[in-house]
Amino acid sequence: MSALLHTLLTLCLTFTQGGCTYSGNHWDEWSDSQLQPTIQKLMKGYNRYLRPNFNEGPVEIGMSLDIASIDAISEINMDYTATIFLRQRWRDSRLVFPGNESVSVDGRLVSLLWIPDTFIPDSKRSFLHDVTVENRLIRIFSNGTVLYALRITATIACNMDLTKYPMDRQVCTLQLESWGYNLQDVVFYWTRGNDSVKGLDILRLAQYSVESYYTSVSEAVYETGQYPKLVLHFALRRNVLFFILETYVPSILLVVLSWVSFWISQSSVPARTCIGVTTVLTMTTLMMGARTSLPNANCFIKAIDVYLGICFTFIFGALVEYACAHFYTMQNQTIEELHRELLRDFNESNGNGSIPIFRYTQPKHTVQMSSTAEEPLEQAADCDTRNHAGAREKLSDQGCGLSSVRSASRRAAAAFTVENPHNIDRHSRTAFPMAFLCVNILYWLYYLFL
Ligand SMILES: *[C@@H]1O[C@H](CO)[C@@H](O)[C@H](O)[C@H]1NC(C)=O
Ligand SMILES: *[C@@H]1O[C@H](CO)[C@@H](O)[C@H](O)[C@H]1NC(C)=O
Ligand SMILES: *[C@@H]1O[C@H](CO)[C@@H](O)[C@H](O)[C@H]1NC(C)=O
């Protein structure tokens, strides 16, 4: 029966070039067909420019969607491209025919029927697939219900907030509105509420996973009136694992690498500068690489930028730490030498024989220390403190003249001197990891849970 009807309708289209006036002689040969009254009733006097229930209430149009795929979710263009099956159903009392079956009509006959003027307000580009024929379907039920399905691919705008990138969650919408018919003419509804949308659960996306979705009914208000609107909201959560492997782990390792410098003797200048500069440069490269996939023109600071900034600060801090430690060591040595000069001068003028012997041994020892790079740090520090203690013991015996010289030179250098420069390294060994740990805890707490 449906096949016959199909043939009839197709013939009708072919012979009358879309006008479908049924006044020609072609119908006479079908006059014995029992279906003829149905066809006549279907198409005779049908005005496709008038909506169903023209003088009555609004047409109720039920919608449901199948999301076949969501391809490109683009942060640069702030949009996504989706292929959807859109199904609309409404009741057209002019199309009622006897029986309880349905007829699937050729998609080209759509042009003979009234169809809703649904559009996607946020779409930038969209097209109806037409291989091998236009992908649309019309099914007319005997009670007048029309089912109209389409396969559309659309690029739809989605405003993204990237401040938490890559720990972000984007909420995108798919909106359906009526172009010309306002709420007095057409009413939209989801056929099965939240279940009207299928396919989102099983979707596999490259960078995201669909966290949740729901549907809502609202209305669009324009200057020309109020229009029916259906909205599908869906939340996408980015899979952060890729970024952890790609960016976070390497930058953490770089920071740890920069700490290695604290365990290397201060006297090995090339080794420590090399570590410092190399880590700074690698970090810079890493920061550049992390930026390429995102819009650079945007002035917002993303979570990944914050983290790379933190790592860069720590690495830079390690380099600066060495600069400071080295500077103070050199300064300390100079001050020690100054002390000795002063002491020697003082003692020579006093004519005391015991001090010069002590003085001669000490500088030799210090010089030897600073020239051997392989000397363990601990030993160096020990010697240093021992020297101080020894010097102090001796000096306390020298009387008021010597102590005044000593205090004067101490005071002069006090503002810029650290008591023991090797302590800078020793404290850094705990301070840097602890600080990094604290900053990390704060960072991850803020971006994952706030
Ligand atoms: C509707 O179709 C069913 C079979 O699908 C048939 O049994 C039933 O008699 C039909 N009803 C009418 C009113 O034609
Ligand atoms: C029309 O018939 C179809 C198929 O039998 C059914 O799903 C639909 O609910 C019916 N519509 C009305 C308004 O009765
Ligand atoms: C659809 O889901 C949303 C969010 O979960 C909920 O608020 C709403 O009540 C649901 N609607 C229906 C019709 O179930």
From TrEMBL:
CDD domains: LGIC_ECD_GABAAR_pi. Keywords: Cell membrane, Chloride, Chloride channel, Disulfide bond, Glycoprotein, Ion channel, Ion transport, Membrane, Receptor, Signal, Transmembrane, Transmembrane helix, Transport. It catalyses: chloride(in) = chloride(out). The keyword Membrane applies. One of its GO terms (molecular function) is GABA-A receptor activity. Residues 1-18 form the signal peptide. It is a multi-pass membrane protein. One of its GO terms (cellular component) is chloride channel complex. The chain crosses the membrane at residues 240-262, 274-294, 306-328, 431-449. Residues 247-444 form the Neurotransmitter-gated ion-channel transmembrane domain. Its main location: membrane. It is found in: Apical cell membrane. Residues 39-239 form the Neurotransmitter-gated ion-channel ligand-binding domain. The keyword Transmembrane helix applies. Pfam families: Neur_chan_LBD, Neur_chan_memb. Pi subunit of the heteropentameric ligand-gated chloride channel gated by gamma-aminobutyric acid (GABA). GABA-gated chloride channels, also named GABA(A) receptors (GABAAR), consist of five subunits arranged around a central pore and contain GABA active binding site(s) located at the alpha and beta subunit interfaces. When activated by GABA, GABAARs selectively allow the flow of chloride anions across the cell membrane down their electrochemical gradient. Pi-containing GABAARs are mostly located in peripheral tissues. Heteropentamer, formed by a combination of alpha (GABRA1-6), beta (GABRB1-3), gamma (GABRG1-3), delta (GABRD), epsilon (GABRE), rho (GABRR1-3), pi (GABRP) and theta (GABRQ) chains, each subunit exhibiting distinct physiological and pharmacological properties. Belongs to the ligand-gated ion channel (TC 1.A.9) family. Gamma-aminobutyric acid receptor (TC 1.A.9.5) subfamily. GABRP sub-subfamily. This is Gamma-aminobutyric acid receptor subunit pi.
